[in-house]
Each structure stands twice: as C-alpha cells, then as structure tokens.
Amino acid sequence: MGGTFDPIHYGHLYIAEEVRQAARLDKVLFIPSAQPPHKTDFIVTSSDHRLEMVRLATAGNPFFEVSAIEIEMGGTSYSVRTVEQLINKYDGKAGLYFITGVDAFAEIATWFDVERLLTLCHFVVTSRPGYPFRRLEAVPHIKPETLALLDEMDAGRPCATATLETGRDLILLRTLQLDIAATDLRARIRSGRSIRYLLPDSVESYIMAHSLYS
Ligand code: ATP
Ligand code: MG
Question: Ligand 1 test: best mutation among 128, 171, 175, most atoms within 8 Å of CB?
Fold first, then answer.
C-alpha cells in the first residue's frame, strides 16, 4: 500500500487491516512515496518525517511493515518500479497485491507504464467516500463484464473479484466509509482545529513536536 502519508491517518490504517483480513494477506507493506523533486500543488513534507509517522502508526500491528524502498530510490516514485523491486526482493515467490482506494485506482491510466504495472501484480481496491466504484471504468484492461460488477458494488455488494485482461485479479472491497483525508488534516492543523481521533496519538504527538503543517 503506497501513499504520500502526509500524514498517515486512520483511513489508511483501517483499510489496510480490512484488506489484510479479507484477502488473507500475510502482511501489509506501507510504502511512503519519495519526495517529488518538483513542487506540485503543495509541498510534500520531508520523507524522513513521513516515514517516521508511518513507523509510529504501524508499530502496534504485527502484520504491518514499513518499506522505505521508494524513499531510498528517491526522485519521482513510479509504482511499476516499486513492484519490480519487490518481485526481485521476494525472488518472484510472493503473491503481491497492490492496495489503493477507488480515488487512486481510478487515475491509474495516468501512471507511468501502467500497461506493465497491470501485468505485474494483483490489485485490491477499497471504497472511498465520494468516489463510486463506477469510476473504475476508466481503468485500462478492465473487462466489459466487470462494469456490471462496479454497479453492483455501488448498489451495496460487499466484495467482488474480477480478472483484468492482463490475467491479474482485481478485488473490489466495500469498507466502512471513513471520510478522513490527509489534505483535510493539514488544513485542520493550519487553522488550529483538533485532529484527535482521526489519527493515532503517537502521530499527533510527532506532528506537534516537530511543528509540522502549521
Ligand atoms: P491527500 O489528501 O494528501 O491526497 P490521502 O488521505 O488521500 O492524502 P494518500 O497518501 O494520498 O492519502 O493515500 C494513499 C492511499 O490510501 C490511496 O490509495 C488512497 O486511496 C487511500 N486512502 C486514503 N485515505 C483513505 C480513506 N479515508 N478511505 C479509504 N482509502 C483511503
Ligand atoms: Mg490522496
């Protein structure tokens, strides 16, 4: 599960745990992205801080692991490169599942070398408030018959497994709708509003100790 995790919050942790159980995964790797070399619409917090917050947040779950693979590679993070590295790391023996929310997966057509990425691993996509599963019709290599499944998911079906035209699994999972977003958390901190109960206490303390986002 990749992300900027700027900062990590209960939305991330909750879906990771839910997916781990539903897809019977041995573990979930949290992979914070590297700091983009160029500024985009906002300045991403330094990788060291984001990595440390992910470490703090995941420390209590024996099934959660943190990987600094993208941060160590540096530059712009490309998921296809990350997955290639993970395949090498596990000697091709691990079944890799790429976990994203609907919002992120709906954009995958814009990712670098998506054609190859979709051949390399399986995908698990969880619901996110404001983003119907139907948005996934924009995903390359989704089979026409899967479109009906997307509508069923939006109508309340709890989960479904489809196959992409690349042969890889696409697991769709309805989760509780935790409408927590890092963008909102950053805005709350800037304006002095509480972020308590939206992320782990340890992460909140870290943010305050390092005066992040204010
Ligand atoms: P930002 O607002 O800065 O984009 P974010 O909260 O969306 O932050 P990201 O690091 O962009 O967090 O997200 C990483 C992954 O976690 C993405 O796949 C995203 O879809 C998923 N995700 C984040 N928050 C939630 C949530 N509340 N519910 C479900 N999925 C989430
Ligand atoms: Mg996001």
Answer: 128
